[in-house]
Amino acid sequence: MIDNEIVEGVMESAEDDYIDMTDIMHYIRDQADGSPARLRIAATVADKLVREGRIVPGDLTREGFYPWLTSPDESADRITSESNLWADERKEVHFGTIAWFDLPSRIAARAADRDAATPSE
Question: Which superkingdom heads the taxonomic lineage of this protein's source (predicted)?
């Protein structure tokens, strides 16, 4: 079961800016000892929020945020799979590891801005 305070904290962070797995791990730091266990729990939180459509995973580049072109279920599965692989191999999780996340509303607003800037024929 995922604590509502964790979900609220993650969502508040997402309201402010892009977030990544290290941000989610911050909110569950008291629930597990060691990075691999925290990563697995963070993946569970991310999985839930992605499947619910509350956050969207993607890649963050100098040009901006690019949502993954997979369904929420496929994206959540990818996050869980990659997180479990990193945890199994006891890899250190760094800023931007596995996925970045943004809010659907911000993604839609950026798309609308781009559409508005495109000249109509």
Answer: Bacteria
